[in-house]
Design goal:
796 residues, Ubiquitin-like (UB roll), Rossmann fold, Dimethylsulfoxide Reductase, domain 2, seven-stranded mixed sheet, 18% strand
Length: 796
């Protein structure tokens, strides 16, 4: 620590800290444009010039480290004159278009110019003009306003891990742009809008929609992934106009993924269901709430009375709130039914009794940054969980080694040690190789924690060189994390993947967890929205049917909550077929989906997260409560209120809730002191045999695209115009040659005798031979079957 003095105030600050950081720590304001606490120091705007005793000239506060006895003056005549001179220089070429600039009212340049600028200009030469650039559907450019702070350039290089923006030219001819006029495609690209201190980079969807001072900021939580990034919904006239990050250093810091930032457009989509509908004699009729609820309850009640409670069930989106999960499972279990599930994209739940209280990442994000070894199993983490990927990238900058075991080679935006890609996408073989190699290096104490017959079960495995290297690094590491993703939990042999990865974590004494599906999968487990457990992990007296089992053996009555079965289920064709065979389908949905109208009997309009209060639990076990940002649209109602009224009409007791807090309090009273931990290794490694692959057949790798994870994201028009939303069949070049297919040629995908829509071919040598990447959860592929199934390709 060193002693310094700023404007007469004596401070003790760390040696080497910059003057601007020391000043910020005690609330002394120094103007700045290029400086940002999360970015490297550029010192190119010079707005932060301050007067340092004994220095021959003003010094940039952002790039001048403190020294013992230093005296700094931020308001001296020399400092103020320097700051005003810089301000005048910056405004020489800046257009006077504040009245039409979206940044007006929230502009750093406006704020600083008010204090340090002149009320007239001495510059009478022609101002420069920079042509605006089209860099994609999310970011609007007005580059004449750019002051060359380079925050956007540094963000791409240092945070997003992809240098998409850069500077060309010198002096006043310097311009910020993309390489060869390409679009900006990073999944974190929207953060440059917040970073830009002027109106050069603004939100394209929000452009000219409202003024900053007209908006009301409502705190909320991201509804798209298991991180639960904190956001502000900015509203105007009872409509969400934009989403901005709400700082939380343990989660999203001050960043947002583009999915969280621009997904709000889905809240206002024309597909919103605004009134109840019932089907009469095969025709849909709009009706009122009492009629619709009475019809819904009567249909379900009749099935329970005539065919028993086991003939009804519920499919719930993992984005439902904790309150909705709890009330729906309580409603069903009051009738003696355990058929409820939110794991819509999972097909193998044979290990469900052996898992912990909820799907956890096993480690916090700040801790993840400081792990020595990180192993990603079955995940394109960058395109699944952008914020977690950002933290993993920060870990690599701190010296961490990242390994991957995947069915396909993915594009990381950080340096990774090695990646194991199994033949024809087989992750299980790769995991077995690494585990066997690790066992050969483990001590007896660690080996004793595994079943005794594991050596015999893996006797036929011969680890390859990459597996041995990976195992050596894992066993030498002191802080190891193993993280599972989409390809792992959606695999038809997920049990084996969980077991093998858990065994590997045990040998390495590391953390183990998963990046679960949806925003509130943890809440679904804790609230009891699973067939085998009651709230807080208490075992159900009788295990009900999982989501996939309810579709394989259709029930006579079904409740769908925030669920679009043709897009949210692992087996969309099976889901739609099963629901069409069901006597009564009651859908509580925010969106009017044509496929729901095809299979449902009652449509009840419920609110998305923006129009209701609720609770989410993220993958770290944090409970996040949020309130409604706007009032419900027309006749929409929060789903928990709809479920409460349904229970009342069903003449169930203990459904008298008036507020969310009453539901949460009741749920928390059910919490027991018994700790629910995973017991995967208490049983032997389950057997696994890959499906036979006939000649000409390919294994379908079916990731859920970044912007197709839920109904809100799918309806965000700007997100659907991005590169990440484009759908294609990706093939290895040799595979395409063998099938006589060319780049961009249209093909149809055949799976189980049913074809997809025509899709373009994309040649990608990251894809293993014998496989094809055909995304799930899209309108073009919803007629197909489950992930990792066998497919053929035919020219369209």
């Amino acid at each position: 620590m060193v002693s310094i003095e700023i404007d007469g105030e004596k401070l003790e600050v760390p040696q080497g800290q910059m003057i601007i950081e020391a000043a910020d720590s005690v609330g002394i304001a120094i103007p700045r444009f290029c400086y940002h606490k999360k970015l490297s120091i550029a010192a190119n705007c010079r707005m932060c010039l301050v007067d340092v005793e004994k220095a021959p000239k003003p010094m940039p506060a952002c790039a001048t480290p403190v020294t013992e006895g230093m005296k700094v003056f931020t308001k001296s005549q020399r400092a103020v004159d320097a700051q005003k001179a810089v301000m005048e220089f910056l405004l020489i070429n800046h257009p006077l278009d504040c009245p039409i600039c979206d940044q007006g009212g929230q502009c750093e340049l406006q704020d600083v110019a008010l204090e340090y600028g002149k009320d007239y200009s001495r510059f009478d030469e022609r101002k420069r003009v920079v042509k605006d650039k089209n860099i994609g559907p999310l970011i609007s450019t007005d580059m004449t306003r750019c002051i060359h702070c380079t925050r956007c350039v540094r963000f791409g290089t240092e945070i997003a891990g992809e240098r998409e923006l850069g500077a060309t030219g010198r002096g006043e001819f310097m311009e910020i742009g993309t390489y060869l006029q390409k679009s900006v495609n990073s999944e974190l690209s929207g953060n440059v809008i917040d970073l830009c201190p002027v109106g050069a980079l603004t939100s394209k969807p929000f452009r000219f929609q409202a003024r900053a001072w007209e908006l009301k900021a409502e705190p909320s939580v991201s509804p798209h992934d298991c991180v639960g990034s904190h956001v502000f919904f900015h509203t105007h006239r009872q409509k969400v106009m934009r989403a901005l990050p709400r700082t939380n250093e343990t989660l999203n810091e001050m960043w947002l993924s583009d999915r969280d930032r621009f997904g709000y457009e889905g809240f206002n989509h024309t597909d919103r269901l605004t009134a109840p509908w019932i089907k009469r004699d095969g025709n849909w009729v709009e009706t009122d709430w009492p009629t619709a609820l009475s019809v819904a309850v009567e249909k379900l009640q009749k099935i329970v009375q005539n065919e028993g409670p086991e003939q009804i069930g519920a499919l719930v989106s993992p984005n439902a709130t904790l309150e909705e999960f709890y009330l729906l499972q309580k409603l069903l279990r009051t009738q003696g039914c355990n058929n409820i599930d939110h794991r819509l994209r999972q097909v193998d739940n044979s290990h469900q009794d052996q898992l912990g209280l909820f799907p956890s990442l096993g480690i916090t994000l700040p801790e993840l940054e400081h792990q020595e070894i990180i192993v990603v199993v079955g995940s394109d983490v960058r395109k699944e969980q952008p914020i977690i990927n950002h933290r993993i990238r920060k870990a690599t900058l701190h010296g961490s080694q990242v390994f991957a075991i995947n069915p396909i080679s993915v594009s990381f935006n950080f340096a990774h040690a090695s990646e194991l890609v199994g033949e024809k996408g087989d992750m299980i073989q790769s995991l077995q190789e690494v585990l066997k190699a690790a066992m050969s290096m483990a001590d007896k104490e660690s080996l004793a924690k595994l079943p005794a017959d594991i050596q015999q079960q893996l006797s036929h495995i011969a680890p390859q060189h990459t597996a041995n290297e990976m195992a050596t690094a894992l066993m030498a590491g002191k802080k190891v994390s193993i993280i599972l993703g989409n390809y792992a939990w959606s695999h038809p042999a997920a049990h084996q993947i969980y077991w093998l990865s858990r065994a590997l974590a045990t040998l390495t004494k590391g953390s183990w967890g998963e990046m679960s599906n949806g925003a509130n999968s943890a809440g679904g487990w804790i609230a009891g929205a699973i067939p085998h457990r009651l709230p807080f992990g208490q075992a159900a007296q009788k295990t009900g049917l999982s989501a996939i089992q309810m579709l394989e053996t259709p029930r006579q009555g079904m409740i769908l909550l925030h669920c679009e079965p043709g897009l949210d289920c692992a087996t969309p064709r099976l889901a739609l077929s099963a629901l069409e065979k069901t006597q009564a389908v009651v859908a509580l949905t925010a969106f009017d989906d044509p496929q729901l109208r095809q299979c449902a009997d009652v449509l009840l309009p419920v609110t998305p997260i923006s129009e209701m209060a609720g609770t989410y639990i993220n993958a770290f076990g944090d409970w996040h409560h949020f309130k409604a940002a706007v009032t419900p649209l027309e006749q929409s109602r929060p789903a928990w209120k709809v479920l409460r009224v349904m229970a009342n009409l069903w003449e169930m007791t203990d459904f008298t809730y008036q507020t969310n807090d009453e539901i949460i309090n009741e749920l928390q009273r059910l919490q027991t002191k018994n700790e629910v931990t995973d017991t995967l290794l208490s049983k032997t490694l389950p057997s696994y045999k890959a499906a036979a692959q006939a000649e000409g057949m390919l294994v379908r790798l079916a990731p859920t695209p970044l912007y197709s994870v839920d109904g809100v994201a799918r309806r965000s028009h700007p997100l659907q115009e991005t590169k990440d939303a484009s759908i294609a069949v990706r093939l290895h070049s040799s595979q395409a040659k063998a099938l006589n297919l060319q780049q961009d040629q249209k093909v149809v995908v055949m799976q189980d005798g049913v074809s997809s829509a025509a899709l373009p071919v994309e040649i990608d040598d990251h894809v293993p031979v014998g496989t094809a990447v055909v995304p799930a959860s899209t309108a073009q592929t919803q007629s197909l079957g489950a992930p990792f199934g066998m497919i053929t390709l035919k020219p369209a």
